[in-house]
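ingest -> fold -> write
write: protein_1
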Amino acid sequence: MERIVEQVKSRRRYDSRLRQAQAQRTRDAILDAAQRQFLAAGYAATTIAGIAGEVGVSVETIYKAFGGKSGLVRAIYDRGLTGRGPSPAYERSDQMREQETDPVTIMRNWGRLTSEVGSWLADAIGSSRTTYRVTARPTIWLATSEVR
């Protein structure tokens, strides 16, 4: 018995770039809404349902992506520490430390990275009446309504 082998069209490769970009926009929108609500109402009063409602996603989407409120806080914290450059600020700092030998240039570059991350911090926290303290474990973010 002879086998007949037909040529089959090769499978089209799945290009997920558009889906990945949409997922990143959704993730950023969730983090932006969570940050706004944490700053406006405080950690305890902010709900996952409220964040989901503002963004237009399901509660399950937020739980799956972040695991809950503490995961959102951790992601906001991490996003702030990455800075606004082409790569995370900590990577640029490490790269600069390994490649640069001039102390003046090192200090100038670290100053730029610090002001980049600091400006995010000022935008995120400075405009609010809520004071945030991040403990050694970034999953714990305490909020009080006192003004300092």
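write: protein_2
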Amino acid sequence: MDKITVTKDALLAKLKENRNTHEQVYKDAVEKYKEAIVFYLKKALARAEKGKKVNHYISVVEPTNNLKDYDRVIGMLEMSTQTTIQLDSNEYSQYVLDDWNWKDTFSNSSGLYGAGRFGYSGYTGSAGSASVSGISSSSEDEELGSVFQANDINLQD
């Protein structure tokens, strides 16, 4: 099938739903990213205070934000006077199935922090609940430390 025709309202609703999911996954990943940076810096400070070697380069992937792609398409549709819209298979994949050309990169960067770890289709919650305020529990260390292990950063004493 080369093209399909959909109602503008149905397409707008689906795009807005996909945008909201993307925004939530992104926000959750950014929070976990910030926690990971603080976690690393606290660990590095502790190592420095003990006189141990500290890696001065933080190699942590920042989550990517692709909301502008949703906003552009939503804006175009909202301004359109048409009541039905034709979609080709590529547009259908992006707008309805939420399978954009950047999705793998987004899923990988947000997945490092637990947000949408298996892609974000059907995402239902926050990126996780670990807190690093005191870096007190080993499960927090393991969860945030895994971000640095994935990026080849050694935090061992």
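write: annotation protein_2
The first strand starts at residue 3 and ends at 7.
The longest helix spans residues 8-49.
pipeline exit 0
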